[in-house]
Amino acid sequence: MRRKNHYKFTGKRHSRRGMLACFLAAASIFALAYLIGNSFLQKGDGSVYLGSAGILALAAALASFVQAVKSVREEDTFRGIPVASVVLSVLASGAWIALYTVGFMM
After folding, report:
1. Annotated domain spans of the chain
2. Which of 42, 57, 64, 85 could form a disulfide with 24 if both were Cys (CB 3.0 to 4.6 A apart)?
3. How far is the first Cα of the chain from the last one, in angstroms, to the nearest whole number?
4. Kind and range of the H or E element at 61?
5. Half-sphere exposure of 104 (CA within 13 A, CB side)
6. Total-model pTM
7. Is 3 helix (H, G, I), strand (E, B) or coil?
């Protein structure tokens, strides 16, 4: 059996804020897809619950954006997850804002 020595040459760690922001942004994107599909199946006559879930998902997307920006500014962390969380949160927030803007225009 081979013995493996694990060495850690850096003091960096993964950002907890970045992971939280990534999870919130992904949940918001999945909620967007689910709510659009559910609204389409109901031919636009969705209940109040669909609208309130959409507003909650928009708030989660905006909160994930704030957390993602804070995670990018953290010292001694790996940059992969915070950058991915910024991208996902911008996509989620942009999609929700575009959806509500189109809805208000119509």
Report:
1. 16-105
2. 64
3. 68
4. helix 48-72
5. 6
6. 0.81
7. coil
Q: What Å distances lie between residue 80 and 13, 18, 42, 85, CA to CA?
A: 11, 9, 39, 9
What does the block give as tokens for 84?
Answer: 């991915």
Residue located via tokens 């694990």: 6
Q: What does the pLDDT read at residue 26?
A: 94
> CA–CA separation, 93 vs 91, rounded Å?
6
Q: Please, are residues 78 and 13 in contact by the beta-carbon 8 Å criterion?
A: yes
> What are the two backbone dihedrals, phi and then psi, of residue 77, each rounded to the nearest 5 degrees?
-130, 155
Q: Which amino acid is at 9?
A: F
What string of pLDDT tens digits covers the 106 residues of the chain? 666 777 766 777 777 888 898 999 999 999 999 999 998 998 888 888 988 999 999 999 999 999 999 888 877 777 777 888 899 999 999 999 999 999 889 8
| CA–CA dist 56, 10 (Å, integer) | 39
Ramachandran assignment for 44, one of left (phi > 0), alpha (psi -120 to 50 degrees), beta (any other): left
